[in-house]
Every structure is written in C-alpha cells, then in structure tokens.
Amino acid sequence: MGLDFSHTDAQWSYGGFHRFRTAIAAHEGIDLNQMHGFARLADDTPKLSWDTVTTPLKPLLNHSDCDGELTPDECRQVAPRLREVIDAVWPEDCYDRQSGLELADGMEAAAAAGVPLQFC
C-alpha cells in the first residue's frame, strides 16, 4: 500500500514519500518535521507556520500524503523547481530521483490538460 498519482506512474510508500519531501524541504532550508501539520513535537512546542514559506514547492510540501490534489496552477509552479531540486539532491540511479522526475512529468501533463494532479 502506498501513494499513487494521476497522470504518472510515480509512486512511493507513505514513509518513502515523507522521506522524499523531507529531503526536498531540507534543500529549501525547511525542517519539515518542525512545520505545522508534520511536527512530532510535544504539544506545548509551537509548530512553524507555512505562512513564512516562500519556495515554489510549498503546495507539494504542505499537502496531505494520502489524498487531495494539486491544481493546474500549482503544478505549473511546482514542477520546474522540483526538477531543479531533484538534480541537486539525488544521483542519476536513485529511486527517488526517477520517481520525482516522473512526478514532475505528471504535474506538467495535468497542467497541460488543465486538470488537477490527484493524490490517490
């Protein structure tokens, strides 16, 4: 069981997708585990707000890992930066690199069709 998307064959286990997004976020200077919605901190520890995040990857990073969608505009915003980060973070023969590039392809396909990319 894991996470699939419309418009692409990219898929991860839920844990694998969390690790993928954690690595992307770290490259952008974000500790994903400190962010609201992801933090696994004591209840009295403040979580960081997404309002301060400016990376084009924000719609992908601040998203449920098991359902929902990215709009065509969000896909157009995320895909180019996702490709840049993937090139900087993962070597050529890495699963996350290949799946991440497939995800970017799916985002571009969904955006070109004018429909959302579904998380399923």
What does this protein look like?
With 120 residues, the protein is mainly alpha-helical. It has one domain (3-118). 46% of the residues lie in helices and 7% in strands. It has four helices and four strands. The strands form two sheets. A two-stranded antiparallel ribbon has the order 1-2. Strands 3-4 form a two-stranded antiparallel sheet. Helix 3 runs antiparallel to helix 4. It is globular and about 45 Å long. The protein starts with a strand and ends with a strand. The mean pLDDT is 91.
Write a brief structural summary:
This protein has 120 residues and is mainly alpha-helical. It has helices at residues 14-27, 58-61, 72-89, 95-113, and strands at residues 3-4, 11-12, 69-70, 117-118. The chain has one domain (3-118).
Average of per-residue pLDDT values: 91
For the largest sheet, list the strands in their spatial order: 1-2
Note poorly predicted spans: none
Which value, in Å, is the CA radius of gyration?
14 Å
Order of helices and strands: EEHHEHHE
Tell me the number of helical segments per DSSP (H or I, 4 or more residues long): 4
Structural class: mainly alpha
Helicity range: 40-55%
Task: Give the CA-based shape.
Answer: globular
Structural domains: how many: 1
